[in-house]
Amino acid sequence: MTLRINSEAPDFTAETTEGTIRFHDWIGDGWAILFSHPKDYTPVCTTELGYMAGLKPEFDKRNCKIIGLSVDPVSDHVKWAKDIEETQGHAVTYPMIGDTDLAIAKLYDMLEEDDGTSAQGRTAANNATVRSVFLIGPDKRIKAMLTYPMSSGRNFDEVLRLLDSCQLTARHKVATPVNWKQGEDVIIIPSVSDAEAKEKYPAGWKAPKPYIRIVAQPK
After folding, report:
1. DSSP bridge pairs for 79
2. 3-state class percentages of the chain: helix first, strand second, coil last, to nearest 5
3. 64 part of the active site
4. Total domains, the chain
5. Could you tell me if residue 85 is inside a domain?
6. Element (H, E) at 206
7. What's the pLDDT at 121?
8. Strand, coil or helix: what is 126?
9. Do 24 and 66 sit in the same domain of this protein?
């Protein structure tokens, strides 16, 4: 299955460090971040899981659950979590999926169908493409995807910023410009006519070009 933005996030049942979940039921009526890792006990991923643990209260404020995935078994995740807390200073308080048969990695187009059916004997190099972030909306559709190489730690502050943008633009007919941060000006999307924009923004907007209409972030 090839996944794109606005594809339905594939549903699945899986074992996690917090018990068995059905993914769509676990998401509920909020947002979710699924982020994957090629192997337990890898140094870059250890820093990432710890940082996400520290950021979890910010995701909670935004009604967004976070969940990790690695192809190793849940029993290994539990042991790895102790290392993460010890070295990164944050306990992992979100679930981590065990994908030992590689089914979810394949379902999310991170591994090829012919990559086998067991994580046993595989290395991080074999699983290098299991290194993605999926931002999923309440409608269970994928709103954004990010994929990094193993050598580059992911920027989860950027994922939080991206979530802010996706949530804002889901509520209002606006887009966020380059490097936008919460509270900064936004852009009225082209599908909104000037007449409609005047009803929404009676104070007007800045327009360096007719197709660039800049307004304060709506509440």
Report:
1. none
2. 30, 25, 45
3. no
4. 2
5. yes
6. strand 206-209
7. 83
8. coil
9. yes
